[in-house]
Design brief:
The chain is mainly alpha-helical. The longest helix is centred in the first third of the chain and has 29 residues. The chain has 2 domains: 61 residues, Orthogonal Bundle (Arc Repressor Mutant, subunit A); 136 residues, Tetracycline Repressor, domain 2. Helix 5 crosses helix 12. 71% of the residues lie in helices and 0% in strands.
């Protein structure tokens, strides 16, 4: 029974990965079940056991958009906020599902059908920024709601541009984005102790994986 459940989990993941690659390559409208079946070693019945429509596939991709993998408690809540953005920047180029969640969010048709997860990301950031404010990590004028909203918009824009102008990695560009943002929102004592290195996310993930092993 356990082996069957594990096989089902692997099959579902393979289907989602393949669907995500199609969404990334041709968009939501042009993606078809037939094209998906041509890419994976799964029968039509096996596919329908997990997903019966393209709409279900898109929703499943978006359900995985908000992920905090690799995020660890830090001395400063502002560092945790930075870490979320850096980890996502590291993972998006490597994970088709995360890239597809962005593609679906910016595509007018799929956005109209399924919405986006941007409000969820804003809520996550807002919560951390409120905690940072309450701990005295932010400058007095900073509005957590405004900053949370602007970072999600800026992060998404940087990702889209970096995809087509790949002279620098997304991690490098998001690191540069924080170099512009943080001096305007972080108190001086905290600012000097924040790590915004483009390599920080990789280190955090390596630590998380070593603890699991």
């Amino acid at each position: 029974m356990l082996a069957k459940q594990e096989r089902a989990v692997r099959t579902r993941r393979a289907i989602l990965d393949a669907a995500s690659e199609l969404f990334n390559e041709v968009g939501y409208e042009a993606t078809t079940i037939g094209a998906l079946l041509a890419r994976i070693d799964v029968t039509r019945g096996g596919l329908y056991f997990h997903f019966t429509t393209k709409e279900q596939l898109a929703r499943a991709v978006l359900d995985e958009a908000v992920t905090l993998e690799g995020v660890r408690p830090q001395a400063f809540k502002l560092q945790e906020w930075v870490d979320i953005a850096l980890l996502l920047a590291h993972r998006v180029p490597r994970e088709p599902i995360l890239r597809a969640s962005i593609r679906l969010s910016v595509d007018p048709v799929s956005r109209r059908l399924f919405g986006t997860r941007w409000p969820d990301w804003i809520e996550v950031g807002h919560g951390l920024l409120v905690e940072a404010r309450d701990k005295g990590e932010l400058l007095p004028h900073v509005d957590p709601d405004e900053i949370a909203r602007l970072l999600v918009g800026a992060w998404t824009g940087v990702q889209l541009v970096t995809e087509v102008l790949p002279e620098r990695t997304l991690s490098e560009e998001i690191s540069s984005l924080f170099a512009l943002i943080l001096p305007n929102i972080a108190s001086s004592g905290v600012l000097a102790r924040l790590d915004t290195s483009p390599y920080r996310a990789e280190r955090l993930l390596q630590t998380a994986h070593s603890e699991v092993e």
